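so ive been stuck on this for like two days lol. basically i have the seq below and the ligand is zinc ion, smiles is in there too. i just want the complex predicted, nothing fancy, no docking runs or whatever. if the output looks off dont worry ill sanity check it later, just need somthing to start from for the group meeting slides
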Amino acid sequence: MSVEELEEDFEDFEEEQQHPPIRCSSCSGTTFGSYIYGLVFPDDDLFAQIGRGDIRLRGCCIEFDSPQWFCRDCDTDHP
Ligand SMILES: [Zn+2]
């Protein structure tokens, strides 16, 4: 990996982009949910989103390679 690519990755991380993949690499599905990390105190709206499967809570520890999204169709994790 070149230095330029590393810098691009760093910029993406800094911006904390919240865009899901265009298409699932496993099933070509286009519906994604997002993982939420950290300590959260769900309110009614968040509970509703969890109930619909739009988001999932993933505890307080975020790993370097923790996925941000999951496919709603086949459950595959996506970075
Ligand atoms: Zn999928």
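Residues 24, 26-27, 29, 71, 73-74, 76 surround zinc ion (CB under 6 Å). The radius of gyration is 14 Å.
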